[in-house]
Amino acid sequence: MFTEMKLSAWTTGVRSKLKLPLRVELWNGQTFDLSSDPPRVTIKVSGPSAMRYLMVPSLYNLGRAYVEGAIDLHGRVADIISIGNELAASSAKVPGRLSRALHLIPQHTREKDAEAIRYHYDVSNEFYQQFLDPNMVYSCAYFDTGAEDLADAQVKKIDHILNKIGLQRGHSLLDIGCGWGALVIRAAQRGARCIGVTLSENQAALARERVARLGLQDMVEIRLQDYRDVEGQFDRITSVGMFEHVGVDNLPEYFERVNKLLGPNGVVMNHGITTTDIESRSTPYGGGEFIDQYVFPHGELAHLSTVIKAMQQGGLEVRDVENLRRHYARTCATWSDNFENNAEKIKSMTDQKHYRIWRVYLAGCAYAFAHDWISLYQIVCGKAGQDPVQIPWSRQYMYQ
């Protein structure tokens, strides 16, 4: 009875601040509605011990409760994320974004970085195939008109990158964090000699299969290798969706290494997620803590200003910056829709915990990009102090 009275007081308090179309259903069947409107989301509480998550409903607590099975969530996943964020924001007793100083900053060793990559990417290739495009491009797509489907938008993203770096036949290209090989394959088809590196065994295996299937073995080499162990110099370097794993404090060293790998008159493009918080703090209401524990161990997001400063510290000149936040919101929303549409097949591939992690993660990312918590920038650089004579005068070449 005490628990039910406490929950009744909590729902009354929330209802006085918000009118959420949310129902809380207890283990005994009793229900509490937080609005007079029909509920779009129902939280089913498994038992009294789960009540602590609702009393302090941060995104971390709600996400953890769902993933660990303390609560169940019913409704459209987009509604679940939206209502969860409103609930967390209205109940927050601390600033929305937590300082990096409040958390132990992870030490990025080669072993820990490789372990984090394997945790996230080596679920199974078949798992990723359920929500990605046929080329399995796991990064922000590029919607030239907004009418493209995901497959076309991902091809356009790769072409947009290759156009931005001015890739020519005969160029050597290094792709840091090559995923399942879509970019290096496309670049090789345009006549470039490519090396793609990844720390994921699953990615490397499938990428090599695809290269062989297309007869591009003489043009593309896929390596299971840390970028810090790559030697030589390259005409062009791309890094797509990888530098989020480097660590904010390590970005100057990262870009210095990229600079050393870049040949004379070379061009590099970094495509990566950034935080919109100027102090590079965590995403609001405990969302960052959930991601760190369950999705991307040791991942860190820097603000755009921090990234540009680190690039200059690494000896690179920033030549072009493009914000693709809107594009990533659309990409993640499409991934989330695909995940929902293939839910039964995905459940047969993995355990309930991983299914629930990815379900709220993909939809949560779509919300975060749509609401400007995080962003995505493509930044084109060259070696500092050089006349970029190989780059055309205008930006028109990027859109050919």
UniProtKB/TrEMBL annotation:
Pfam families: CMAS, DUF7884
Ranges of residues in domain DUF7884: 14-90
Keywords: Lipid metabolism, Methyltransferase, S-adenosyl-L-methionine, Transferase
CDD domains tied to this protein: AdoMet_MTases
Family classification: Belongs to the CFA/CMAS family.
Record-given protein name: Cyclopropane-fatty-acyl-phospholipid synthase family protein
Source species: Massilia terrae
